[in-house]
Specification:
The protein has 462 residues and is of the alpha+beta class. Helices cover 65% and strands 13% of the residues. The chain has nine helices and ten strands. The strands form three sheets. Strands 2, 5, 7, 8, 9 and 10 form a six-stranded antiparallel β-sheet that branches. A two-stranded parallel sheet has the order 1-6.
Length: 462
């Protein structure tokens, strides 16, 4: 008996191990094993997008040149240095004459000569050019910051959009479950002789009509998830779980005048224009002083020449090296073309001045456009708030109506078509509420971006 029990246990354990191995092996063979879903919050999504966005990385890389130029702008005070050496063979023999005591001897046909030249030109425009370099670097930093803020806004909007689609799918699935309950009630009423067969068929057809809608919504959600995954730098088929938002949107009181004035000062596009204008003004100032003020040039050169035969004598005899025309020179020069109208230099400054005026007008137009945009956003938020509040009341009324209709249908006092219409009205009211809530949150993101405050300052209350 003990032997039989032992054999049975051995066979049972061996069977379980084989079954477990097959269970593990089969998904691997079919390629069905996937990594666990990655939990994603809005802040995490923004962090991943900023880290992996190629366009943003290109913007950062393009500003590296400005950063290097700004950090080394002092190099304009480094003199220009040229060093050269000449080894020459004279075509004709020449003579060297020594005045005292008088002596003439033939000079070697091979000659060795070196040269060293240093020069530095200074102008008031030189200092203005250093300022221009720094302003261009600061403008590049603002451009990078603007790109990050735009990316963060778009990621958060896409996140909210995904949550909206997910809840729309869940709403359709809830409608399908409700349709199942209604089919069960219709079957019970049909068996009890309370409704004709055609009513039962209507209920079943209405339930089946929901399946294509659910499939389409789920497919749209999967496509949106794939697009969002690639937006974050993940594979298109990455599995991740979105953290839901708590409750409905909380509507807040907005001071239009204060928000409009803050947008005119802090919107990233306005700040970028302001920085670019500062860089252009610095460039104009540099051009002005370069063209309309004198320049001071400091120069030094030396040309040591070897007096012996470079092919025979040692080059290390310092007394064999002599300088013929070396000097230190200070030159004050002024090119007057910049002061004469109609010259190329004069027109160059005029073109720069016109560019500054055009950018100033462009910034004024941008400020006006920003003020109008913020006003429209505030009006849209107010409209969404009033619509959402009315929509919530509609949802409560529709839910109560559907509850009464289902009770009346169970008692045979209403047709299924009437119940179906009430259920459809509730679903549309719920969907409208969801859309209004998320529309409000997205408009808050636009407003936060426009007034230049961190994301979550307004929308974080929700």
């Amino acid at each position: 008996m003990k032997i039989k029990i032992s054999i049975f246990c051995f066979v049972f354990l061996a069977t379980m191990c084989v079954a477990q191995q097959e269970t593990i092996r089969q998904p691997i063979a079919d390629g069905l094993i996937k990594s666990p879903a990655i939990p994603i919050t809005p802040d995490k999504a923004v962090e991943m997008a900023i880290e992996n966005n190629l366009s943003l990385q290109q913007t950062v890389l393009s500003n590296e040149a400005r950063r290097r130029a700004g950090q080394t702008s002092w190099n304009v005070f480094i003199p220009t240095l040229d060093v050269a050496g000449n080894l020459m063979h004279m075509n004709k023999e020449q003579e060297i004459q020594i005045p005292f005591p008088p002596y003439i001897y033939p000079a070697p046909q091979w000659r060795l000569q070196g040269s060293l030249q240093l020069s530095l030109t200074l102008n008031v425009g030189t200092f203005k050019g250093m300022k221009q370099t720094m302003e261009e670097y600061n403008a590049g930093k603002i451009t990078i910051e603007k790109a990050k803020l735009q990316l963060e806004r778009d990621v958060r909007k896409a996140y909210y959009q995904l949550l909206l689609i997910k809840e729309q799918v869940a709403l359709l699935q809830g409608s399908y479950e409700n349709a199942n309950r209604q089919v069960a009630m219709a079957q019970a009423n049909y068996r009890g002789g309370l409704i004709p067969e055609v009513n039962l068929l209507q209920v079943q057809v209405a339930r089946e009509n929901l399946k294509p809608q659910i499939d389409e919504a789920e497919n749209g959600y999967r496509m949106a998830m794939a697009s969002f995954s690639m937006f974050l730098g993940l594979p298109y088929d990455a599995e991740f779980e979105l953290a839901p938002l708590p409750g409905n949107a909380e509507f807040i009181v907005l001071e239009a005048q204060d928000l409009i004035s803050r947008a005119a000062s802090n919107k990233p596009e306005i700040e970028e224009l302001r920085r670019n204008l500062a860089a252009l003004k610095a460039q104009r100032s540099a051009v002005f002083y370069n063209l309309k003020t004198p320049s001071l040039t400091l120069a030094f050169n030396m040309d040591p020449t070897f007096r012996g035969d470079p092919m025979k004598d040692s080059w290390l005899k310092f007394d064999s090296w002599q300088q013929s025309s070396g000097m230190f020179r200070i030159t004050l020069g002024w090119r007057l073309n910049g002061l004469i109208p109609f010259t190329k230099e004069y027109q160059q400054y005029q073109a720069m001045d016109d560019a500054v005026k055009a950018m100033e007008m462009g910034m004024a137009q941008a400020i006006q456009g920003t003020e109008m945009d913020v006003y429209n956003i505030i009006m849209q938020l107010e409209k969404t708030r009033t619509t959402a509040e009315a929509q919530r009341m509609t949802v409560n009324l529709a839910a109560r109506t559907l509850q009464l209709s289902e009770t009346a249908y169970r008692n045979g006092l209403k047709t299924y078509l009437e119940v179906q219409n009430d259920e459809l009205a509730l679903r549309q009211a719920q969907l409208g509420t969801l859309q209004q809530n998320y529309s409000y949150l997205m408009s808050l993101l636009d407003l936060e971006y426009s007034i230049g405050v961190p994301f979550g300052t307004l929308s974080g209350r929700n």
